[in-house]
Amino acid sequence: MTANPMLGVFLHWLGGLSSASFYLGYRGVKHWAWETYWLAGGVFSWIVVPWLLAFTMTNDLFAVLRETPGSALFWAYAFGVLWGTGGLTFGLTMRYLGMSLGMAVALGYTAAFGTLLPPIFRGEFAKQVLGTHSGLVILSGVASCITGIAFAGAAGISKERELSEEQKRAAIREFSLKRGLLVATFCGIMSACFAYGLAAGDPIKQITLRHGTPVLWQGLPVLVVVLVGGFTTNFIWCMILNFQNRTGYQYFSSKLRGAIPARATEPILETAIDAPGEEMAVALAGPAALSESQPERAPMLANYCFCAIAGTTWYMQFFFYTMGETQMGAFKFSSWTLHMASIIIFSTLWGIALKEWKGVGKRTKWLVALSLFVLVASTVIVGYGNYLGRGSH
User: Fold this and answer.
1) Which of 54, 112, 120, 46 has the alpha carbon at shortest distance from 84?
2) Crossing angle of the two packed helices 220-245 and 300-325, in degrees rounded to 10
3) CA-CA distance, 359 to 339, in Å (whole number)?
């Protein structure tokens, strides 16, 4: 199958839209603690949907996994576990840097490390990227993506400056640039481990292709392994919270035992690529959804249905990601840049549609517009670089 970079860019946009929107399903969950609905949805995100689609859309899934070298399975799984740990420090990044600057720094690191380290690790960076015109074009697209993320962060900071001093102190009580940058670096690297896991799973792709799986679906067996790793981290964290908060009963009983913490105070576990979706969902749901009265029972069936919707939507970002990756030719490492840019593009568009930027000054509006323009341009540049590279590989 001939690579089609423009189709790849479009598929990555669909993945970014899924990532920016998935949390909307969780906003429909009523009277469950965060750890309960996150794990319930995560079972669909990381287990049910990946296995179901890989089993139905690829050939001989279990035989493929049996034939895969143990080292490839181990590293794909291990990087999935490490990706999950990025969420443990993402909250600290927000605490020390604030939402806007913290998001921009974490996403910038995630975009840079997730894009550039896989080809460096494989020894392809100098020859394939720096040594070719198409590779240099793609690098300029990566730089544009990081610049666009920086503009998005600047827009957020500009908006925060329009707040009163009291609002600023409430938003960032523990601001510390040094601590924040250190934590954001760790968080960014760990969140980028998803890209490393997909790269480590390349042998799985080759084996599933030999078994007759269509090229477009070759990444689905890899997602099965990486997401089991992500499930491991999230499962452990949610179980700890279920135990500490005595909320484990919620999976099985609709009768409530005590008050559920307000969502604003929940100990949320997110990676840099998850967070924009939660912010947009809060904006769409409105403040009323954050402070509900406590009834005697939770709507079990509805809650599980909303969790299934949210979890499936979350998975679709990487379903489209692996499809888009197959269209990027020899420079498939650039898919991570396209994914990160698409997340910010659609998160920003959600914010505009939901009037998050209403009433801000001209400088802030210009920064928002500039970030959108640069991010969209970065996806076009990366796509063009991949198009140039089609004839040289």
Assistant:
1) 46
2) 150
3) 30
CA atoms within 13 A on the CB side of 60: 15
User: Which pLDDT band holds residue 279 (cuts at 50, 70, 90)?
Assistant: low
In the block, residue with structure tokens 């210009």: 366
Range list of H helices, 265-334? 275-285, 300-325
Domain that holds residue 385: 5-392
Distance (Å, rounded) from C-alpha 262 to C-alpha 192? 30
Specify the residue for token string 């650039």: 334
- Find the farthest-apart pair of alpha carbons in the chain and give their distance in angstroms, rounded: 66
8 is written with which tokens?
């790849």
Q: Which of 369, 331, 350 has its CA nearest to residue 141?
A: 331
CB burial of residue 352 (10 Å; 0-12, 13-18, 19+): middle
**Total of domains in the chain:** 1
SS3 (DSSP) at 25: coil
Strand partners, 297: 255
Three-state DSSP class for 255? strand
Q: How confident is the model at residue 115 (pLDDT cuts 50, 70, 90)?
A: confident
**Amino acid identity, residue 61?**
L
Check residues 101 and 185 and name the one with the higher pLDDT.
Answer: 185
How do residues 329-378 score in pLDDT, each as one tens digit? 777 788 888 888 888 788 777 777 767 677 778 888 888 888 888 888 88
In terms of average pLDDT, the best of 4-18, 144-158, 373-387 is 4-18
> Can you count the helices (H) and strands (E) in the chain?
16, 0
